[in-house]
Amino acid sequence: GVATITPDGLLELTNGTFRLRGHAFHPTPFHFGKAPNGTAVQAQSFAVSYVFAIYCVQAQTCGHGMASIVAASSNFSDTMPTQYLGLINDHNNGDPANRFFAVELDTNWNDEFKDIDNNHVGIDINNLVSVNSSSAGYYDDRDEGNFQNLTLASYKMMQVWVEYDGGRKQISVSLAPVDMVKPTKPLLSTTYNLSTVLPDMVYVGFSASTGSFDSRQYVLGWSFGINRPAPAIDITKLPKLPRQGPKPRSKVLEIVLPIVSAAFVLAVGTTIILLVRRRLRYAELREDWETEFGPHRFSYKDLFHATKGFKNKNLLGIGGFGKVYKGVLPKSKVEIAVKRISHDSKQGMKEFVAEVASIGRLQHRNIVQLHGYCRRKAELLLVYEYMSNGSLDKYLYDQEKKPTLTWAQRYKIIKDIASALLYLHQEWEKVVLHRDIKPSNVLLDDGLNGRLGDFGLIDHWHQGILTDAVDTKLRGAYNVDEACLALKLGLLCSHPLINLRPNMRQVLQYLNGDMPPPDLNLAHMSFNILSLMQNEVSIDDLRAASMV
Ligand SMILES: Nc1ncnc2c1ncn2[C@@H]1O[C@H](COP(=O)(O)OP(=O)(O)O)[C@@H](O)[C@H]1O
Ligand SMILES: *[C@@H]1O[C@H](CO)[C@@H](O)[C@H](O)[C@H]1NC(C)=O
Ligand SMILES: CC(=O)N[C@H]1CO[C@H](CO)[C@@H](O)[C@@H]1O
């Protein structure tokens, strides 16, 4: 049948599939009725002992059981499973030709065979109606011989002793949990002359059958003796029973699972904290009205990364409103200068941003392009085109770091700024007043072209003086006419009488020599100089104002 011996050495009589039989026999028969030399011997004795375990999905509806057999033949092929236990078929019960003596461990109640219950041990001789039977259990020597119930299909290891005393024709059967010795009082005993049933040669083995429920019968160890007790079974050497039913929670899982879940919770928590911190770190202010300025808006995250977190290493300079940092936009790799301005009120912010956006549309080769802005709770960030040669003030006053600009370079820068102003005053769609022309707002690109930066943030007012104001570092190496013109124009542009100030187109024409220099008489000049002196303006301020 389906009986197999597992690699561990376990005899598995049935495998869980419904309505199957399994048989296992010692391969060679034993002499029972006669001595080995052939002389007739009356009534030999024998003893069988074995350890078994029966697994059922449900102990109450278990099918069907197993039996240990001593029989005339090992051929039980003409038998049936289920209640027939693989010992008989449906028409040969009780037939003397069956020639078997069996001890059944019956886990199913069957009326046909007058079973006493669904958990009993019975002595069967050619017939499944037991000669004698008893509910499973044992008389406990440790408890004054009181009867203890056992559940055959509990999947607990139990030991069975089947003994036949040939002299007294006495059959006795005992059952006990595997860790106990054979009880003094057997569970069952009966008087029966097995010589009338069994021939000279007998086969010793097991039979089991399943019905409509998943059940498995195992024999873990077995011993047999003729004319002596069955040798003791060393229970420490028994094979392991396979795990059955739903997977039990292992010790490893009991330890690992909490640790893993704790780690998981910790990881999720940390991630949430990091995400929240990240949100706060990169948090911006954004309002509905800003959508119209959309393209000019930068994310704080991008600016943060562009400037390497506003590191001091990236600091380009510090102005009146805040620090300016060099940066490289992460995606486009465009170089930028980011001005960080702290502000504490939302007042005028809308107008300011509108201004920023409109300035962003200013496009002139002499104007530092404003790329856009970003707004946070207490700061505003302005993003400009990066000017690699820095601001003009560094060349004029920070002599150690920068070379002296030649007159030609200076005059070029003056003309550059004049054309930037012409564009702002007269050429663009709106009139834009810069109102803060000074060397630190004149930036120089990599071709040393003058570029006007920084709109609308400061309200200062400077003026200049004649050639005294020309930078001594030039050591006289300059075009006196041009220098005078530049200074005169500077003064004229800041004339207290507004009507006398030239417009930027005229300024540029003067600078380019397209128009004769303005006719400034000395009275005018002294007036100006005097008024300046009265205002206690220093020569440095004058120089600054005229950028030369
Ligand atoms: N677009 C830019 N490219 C390179 N450097 C810049 C740029 N804008 C400003 N800087 C540097 O940062 C310094 C401070 O700028 P800013 O705040 O505009 O000065 P201020 O407040 O004096 O007008 C400038 O002097 C200049 O060195
Ligand atoms: C049990 O054995 C039978 C016959 O060999 C086989 O068809 C069946 O698949 C087996 N069942 C299991 C659960 O291994
Ligand atoms: C005068 C001066 O510093 N010029 C520098 C302007 O920037 C370019 C490019 O960065 C340099 O090559 C010049 O030396």
Which descriptors apply to this entry?
548 residues, alpha+beta, Jelly Rolls, Phosphorylase Kinase, domain 1, seven-stranded antiparallel beta sheet, 9 helices, 22% helix, binds adenosine-5'-diphosphate, binds 2-acetamido-2-deoxy-beta-D-glucopyranose, transferase
Verbal overview:
- Helix content is 22%, strand content 24%.
- By secondary structure, it is α+β, with helices and mostly antiparallel strands.
- It folds into three domains: 4-237, Sandwich (Jelly Rolls), CATH 2.60.120; 297-403, 2-Layer Sandwich (Phosphorylase Kinase, domain 1), CATH 3.30.200.20; 460-545, no CATH class.
- The strands form five sheets. Strands 1-2-16-5-12-13-14 form a seven-stranded antiparallel β-sheet, with no helix packed on it. Strands 3, 4, 6, 7, 8, 9 and 15 form a seven-stranded antiparallel β-sheet that branches.
- Helix 5 packs antiparallel against helix 7.
- The radius of gyration is 55 Å and the shape is rod-shaped.
- The relative contact order is 0.09.
The CATH topology of the largest domain turns out to be Jelly Rolls
Give me the CATH architecture of the largest domain, please: Sandwich
Residues in helices, as a percent range? 10-25%
Secondary structure tally: strands: 23
Structural class by sheet pairing and helices: alpha+beta
Radius of gyration: 55 Å
- Adjacency order of strands in the biggest sheet: 1-2-16-5-12-13-14
| Assigned CATH class of the largest domain | Mainly Beta
Beta-strand percent range: 15-25%
- Determine the number of helices (DSSP H or I, runs of at least 4 residues): 9
Provide the number of structural domains: 3
Name the bound molecules: adenosine-5'-diphosphate, 2-acetamido-2-deoxy-beta-D-glucopyranose
Please report the distance between the alpha carbons of the first and last residues.
113 Å
Taken from the alpha-carbon principal axes, the silhouette is: rod-shaped
Major sheet summary line: 7 strands, antiparallel
Low-confidence stretches: 460-465, 522-538
Overall pLDDT, averaged? 84
